[in-house]
Amino acid sequence: MNFSNETYPNLETEDFPLDLLQKLMIAFKAFHGIVIISGTLLNLWLLLAIATSQELRSRMRNKLLISTCVLHLLICLVEGPLQTTFAFSIDYGHFCSHIYAAINIELILDFVSNYTLLTMVIVFVLQLIDLKLSVWLSSLGQRLVTVGVILLPWVASLITIPAMIMGSAKVLITLECSIPYSYATMRLLDTVIPLSLAAVITVVAVLKKRRRFRAGFTSSGMQVELLSPGPQMDEAKTYIAAVGVALCCDLIIALLEYELNFESLKARFIVLYIAFTLECARPLFMFFPWLMFKDVRQRLKSWKPWLRPKPGIESTDVQSGHTQA
Predict the structure, then answer these.
(1) Taking Cα atoms as reference points, which of 255, 282, 256 lies closest to residue 269?
(2) By C-alpha distance, which of 190, 210, 192 is closest to 200?
(3) Pairing mode of beta strands 178-180, 170-172
(4) Which of the four, 153, 168, 258, 282, has the lowest number of CB atoms within 10 Å?
């Protein structure tokens, strides 16, 4: 949810059908509740399915996918409930700390989400050019690179977002509480830049992969991991779908931070609530592009956590789709 003063017009100075506003609020809260429940269950399912398979979690892409699942669980279980409880923050002091916590958490998680997706796309491109870090790095060096790639978006967000919020101009919403006047710069940094780069790099990856196929390379013959070999090269369409979903979910709310002209206040609020709905739906919608990864899809189909394998046995046949783990 966006708290920017630029986003919300003054209802006291303009005519607006309050009954429509109430209906939009009810519809949004109901949908948000569905997203919180279903997003939590689906991302937890995906997280456990990957984390319990030694073969799957050894891939760099799947390590980033685990990080994304953790992120979406935080959005569902922390950010979502925090945003829906403003009505219960009656005390101004409590309300102010409440809204500051929500602002920081929302922007931090947006930052991590978009830059992790950008990292996944970059890793895919590096795989296409056969960059093999395992040739140059020791075992320790490979572990440090892996940890650094995964943690960099999280660490950068914890430093960048609070610093930008503290340094931005403020507007009073109560006598004792102020919020950043505009999130335009923050949205540029945590949404527009990484998603735009991800879209451009994805197009480059598609063109690069097409050229390689024309040159006689096959999917199974390509190097597919920076640090260790994988079963096959990923399909570019998976990254196209993931970047497309991210753009649909986050770009509208980011653009609303800029002065966009609307013919009426009613149109502005309808667009605003569409943007809110798409933004809150990201933990749910982003689950589905990952099903396009063949190894992930086969793991989810065959994973039965209630069946315990024999000690020391874990077999995954991605090509045939039979997995025991």
Answers:
(1) 256
(2) 192
(3) antiparallel
(4) 258
Q: Which residues contact 235 (CB under 8 A, 6 or more apart)?
A: 219, 292, 293, 294
Q: d(Cα 5, Cα 276) in Å, to the nearest integer? A: 15
Question: What's the rounded Cα separation, in Å, for the pair 211 and 203?
Answer: 13
Q: What is the pLDDT of residue 240?
A: 94
Q: Which amino acid is at 273?
A: Y
Q: Which helix (H) or strand (E) holds 15?
A: none
pLDDT in tens, 93-106: 566 777 777 888 88
Cα–Cα distances in angstroms (integers) from residue 159 to residues 162, 166, 257, in the given order = 6, 11, 22
Q: Rounded to an integer, what distance in angstroms lies between the CA atom of residue 70 and that of residue 229?
A: 25
Give the global pTM: 0.82
Please say if the pLDDT value at position 261 is more than 80: no
Structure-token pair, residue 144: 């440090």
| C-alpha radius of gyration, the chain, whole number | 22
Residue 117 has pLDDT above 90, yes or no: yes
